[in-house]
């Protein structure tokens, strides 16, 4: 993808973002009539500026792209061969793992989701030894639980049902 | 006065219990602050009940000591992991992390510590010597002045966005929009909460910055982790390098002043101080140097770390001389004073001079001791960079999650952090100036609510911004700074054309 | 190989989890409390409600013999904490410490009213006063005169919006028939600085936080929002004396989910009464000027009181929002 294409996409997303928020701005109803400047004024200013800048961006990219075309000097993307898993690049897989971890946090609690996450991600990122991965994930989880939930008395997410009950044994 | 200070110093050093408290404060502050998710406020809140049975001087050596040390120690994880350990260290990630990645973690930490100590010591001296005068300055600031200050900070966006001004402006606007989410602080109206009660109090700065900077960096690095680990040759840790000091001394002087002045304003805080100081530093740099910010410029680290430590001490000014808590930690300290049967305020200096000077002495010593104890700490910490990423990366993710969660024990904040992680990952590939978003989020509440508050105070008279001397001055300065580059750019163009012609 | 070990690990955990779940069943109320209790506080660390919760729980821990963690969940003046407490099981191990419960219910931001929560006990009925710079106004008559002469231009600061502070200023304006301009400040710090620095004409504040400023003479109370004069300030007129029916203040107490075992509620109520009567708690109240009015109310009284307040504030909220 060349730079101009990326710019188009970026500015379009900014516009969509701004229009979406602009559409939901009228819903902000001042519950308090006595104020001189209401709560919706500032968002309106920001969003209108944002749309204006988005348009400017698209137009200026258009002009630039026309100039560029004659030169056809598009820098090569740094496309190093990437290792892939199930046709997905590693960052995408890692991201999915992180998302699953975060979603699980509220279901099976910090203790179990963290151990599973650490175990999975260390292997994904290239740790060869099974034992290292298992020990690392358990020890890390224990350290975090002791530090935050026992010493600092911050109850980390417990999860629901049996997982909640179980976490109560530890903190 | 000097004899009070000397007796204060002696009180800290000779009393074994006080000495133990000071060492405990340094240890707790150092490690606690370095761990993302443990903030200075939290540590002080936890320690207050512990100190209930102590003598007042030991209690306050411990509490203010922790407070002073955590103002610095958040920088450690900001530099090494790109995850700010405390909110005060948010801005330190901008240049600290890139410098560490260039193979100079020791140097980055060294600059951070040296600048923190300078900022902290000068801040303490100001607190000790000119508190009443500073308190009067703080009192002359109100909504219009706060707004003018925020405007001055926002005009720096041009310098922060490099060559892509349109993108930089969009970044700031996004940041400002993020800060409008939640309950409007003036009317209590809900804005963009979409029915979620978790969004009532808005999106906090910490999930945004941890997502944009730390989690996105993790995602980026996962590709590299398979490549052969390039071992960073350890540069010797030097706390003081004369060449670097020469470069950053101007920045340090300016940042100390900004830090103290912003710090004394109630409700503004060290994070905003370091953001403003960073923007000014970028603005005052030479044109060709501006590109190097965000890529490991030592001045960037110096600006942030000098200012936040100076501001941390500045926050104590209204607390001790007026009895007004300038921030969350100051409010907890105020509670601690009450717990020990004292009321902070002008009378405290005359009723409890020994205690006051013992506290000042403890702050001075804590700041100076930081220089000495830091060397072994840094030696250990900088090795973190050499830990294989398959181990370090996952740890950072858990830190991201906990660091976000503990801000207000909110699960939704973790989800917000992940969303910003994805946004940051994409935007960084696109070479977007991420710092502009943070600028918007930090200054957003200040800009909007103080503007509206000022108009409310004047019953709808917009001239309030121009009839008050401080506010007018600040606005004129920001207008000059905004248009100066444009005008001087025009001049240069014309000159060039003339020469060519 | 990798997956096998992972699978074994997972099943071991599941097994552990299963065992854990079953052993917890049984008659819970008899041996309550068996483990740590969490008190959710909807305000940041260091604020009035947070300090109140911490002061009570540190005594309550000794009486109940378990750890009690105060968990700060800032947001919407306590709404977030109430929401999270509502989502937690009704086993009696999650309590809410709140000051603005009737208010958030009345304003409609808190969806969970008395149907979902039962008040356990009230500890404090904090007292407001109207504070000014003594150089500006010398008496409440002066102040009201100034407000009559400059309608809508006299600014009164308070912290936050649609909270107790704003309600108080609004009601004061109604009762005294003057047009006051309420300014929602960021926090106590910039509000105090606003009054001393002359940017605000007055503020509504409780006695504890204003005490330091009062001691050095930078602020002065004009009127106290209570029925009777205070022993500590015998010369300070009250609102009721002026013919204003306005004595509200922050009422701090604890709440629990309504479907919790009634026995658990009475265990907590008794333990809290013991805290309230303890010397340590009394000392804390006196240091912070919280003893000006009798605070204690048991579950029944507090429930009734909360009901009345919700009704009263619903009317006020409607008027304030101009519906």
TrEMBL record, chain A:
**Which keywords describe this protein according to UniProt?**
Membrane, Transmembrane, Transmembrane helix
One matching Pfam family, short form? TctB
Where, by residue number, does the polypeptide cross the bilayer? 7-24, 44-65, 85-104, 110-126, 133-154
Q: Does the keyword Transmembrane apply?
A: yes
InterPro entries, per database record = DUF1468
Q: Which residues form the DUF1468 domain?
A: 13-157
Q: Does the keyword Cell membrane apply?
A: no
Q: What is this protein called?
A: Tripartite tricarboxylate transporter TctB family protein
Which organism encodes this protein? Answer: Oceanobacillus aidingensis
From TrEMBL, chain B:
* Membrane as UniProt keyword: yes
Which Pfam families is this protein grouped with?
TctA (PF01970)
Transmembrane segments in this chain: where?
20-48, 60-81, 108-130, 137-158, 164-182, 194-215, 257-278, 319-343, 355-373, 385-405, 411-427, 434-451, 471-491
| Boundaries of every DUF112 domain copy | 19-439
Kindly state which keywords UniProt assigns to this record, in alphabetical order. Membrane, Transmembrane, Transmembrane helix
* Top-rank taxon: Bacteria
Keyword Methyltransferase carried by entry: no
The name this protein carries in UniProt is: Tripartite tricarboxylate transporter TctA family protein
UniProtKB/TrEMBL annotation, chain C:
Q: Does the keyword S-adenosyl-L-methionine apply?
A: no
Q: Does the keyword Nucleotide-binding apply?
A: no
Residue ranges that the Swiss-Prot or TrEMBL entry lists as coiled coil: none
SUPFAM superfamilies linked to this entry: Periplasmic binding protein-like II
- Could you list this entry's UniProt keywords, alphabetically sorted: Signal
Residues of the signal peptide: 1-28
**What does the sequence similarity comment in the record state about its family?**
Belongs to the UPF0065 (bug) family.
The protein depicted here goes by the name: Tripartite tricarboxylate transporter substrate binding protein
